[in-house]
Automatic annotation (TrEMBL):
Protein name (record): Anti-bacteriophage protein A/HamA C-terminal domain-containing protein
Pfam families named in the record: HamA (PF08878)
Domain of life the protein comes from: Bacteria
Species annotation: Haloferula luteola
Residues of the Anti-bacteriophage protein A/HamA C-terminal domain: 35-313
């Protein structure tokens, strides 16, 4: 672990990651990764829903998979670790089950909620990119029916020369790709390009990080917090990056009663990806994000509304 209070390595951050990365492949098929656009620093990753042996896609299975990881997303690492330790001591599951219910109750039941997209972004950031979440936003909510004001998540990477890459998260699930891309990058932009000052969009999250950043190791967490201490020289060693998810309707999935073929879906997605790249390029230029590193997930869905409904149902928030 950390030997110097201001020294964090990639291995240190990797030790804070949650879950088995291989489980993503059960529900999401990787179509393309690290797709570049000339003149920009974005990397696009495209996934589609997997096709089962019956030629069906299963958005409800994806939602149930997400539900099962809810505590990893919504409960601070240290709090969850203490519950696990208590359960080991008393040969019980009481403490962890209590936190699972606490996590579930922190989600809103509003029909147009974006929290399903936010949680899916968390799973992809941690399990696909290897970027640990360092600020648990769900734990900051004071009302389950209200959304937390700020980024949809904050994740961390580290460079070889010790600069903290702070990834501000944003997710948007809309009916069309154009709308999802536009709204997502517009929401992300202020966190990435505004100068640091007390009125900056990111300032509230930076203050929270200085107090609530959590990597489930006191020494490592203290080292991380140095980057958010305005009185520390380490505060000048942050680089702002973005990690984003856009989900939208896609017509190439099998309709009701039809059977899908995974290869056909992949070919159609790759064709459409060329159009999505053009929209991303245009919006990056519009938002002045050309020189900002952004990891962008494109997730075509059978139905954006259906994804939201499936997530609310899996969470027990919709009958």
């Amino acid at each position: 672990m950390v030997d110097n209070i201001s020294d964090i390595t990639a291995d240190d951050l990797a030790s804070a990651l949650t879950g088995d990365p291989g489980t993503l492949d059960v529900h999401l098929a990787l179509i393309e990764r690290d797709v570049l656009i000339d003149g920009h620093l974005v990397k696009i990753h495209c996934h589609c829903l997997t096709v089962d042996g019956n030629g069906k896609v299963q958005p409800r299975r994806l939602a149930e998979f997400m539900r099962n990881a809810v505590a990893d997303y919504a409960i601070p690492r240290t709090k969850l670790a203490k519950a696990k330790e208590r359960d080991r001591k008393y040969n019980s599951t009481e403490a962890v089950v209590g936190l699972l219910e606490e996590a579930r109750r922190s989600f809103t039941d509003l029909a147009k909620t974006g929290e399903g997209g936010e949680m899916l972004l968390f799973l992809l950031a941690e399990r696909f990119l290897g970027l640990p979440q360092i600020l648990c936003k769900m734990d900051l909510k004071t009302d389950a029916r209200l959304h937390y004001h700020g980024a949809d998540g904050v994740y961390a990477g580290i460079t070889d020369d010790g600069f903290l890459k702070l990834y501000w998260g944003e997710s948007k699930i809309y009916k069309t790709a154009s709308e999802a891309i536009k709204e997502c990058l517009a929401s992300l932009s202020p966190f990435l390009i505004e100068p640091d000052h007390e009125e900056a969009e990111r300032e509230r999250d930076l203050i929270l990080l200085s107090d609530k950043a959590d990597l489930n190791d006191p020494k490592l967490t203290d080292a991380l917090k140095r980057y958010f201490d305005k009185n520390s020289v380490m505060s000048n060693r942050k680089r702002y990056c973005g990690v984003a998810l856009v989900g939208f309707d896609a017509a190439f999935y099998p309709g009701e009663g039809a059977k899908g073929v995974a290869d056909d879906i992949a070919v159609a997605a790759r064709t459409e990806l060329e159009k999505w790249k053009e929209r991303v390029s245009s919006r990056l230029t519009e938002e002045k994000l050309e020189q900002i590193e952004i990891e962008l997930f494109c997730l075509p869905l059978p139905s954006a509304d259906g994804f939201r409904d499936a997530f609310l149902s899996a969470m027990g928030l919709k009958l």
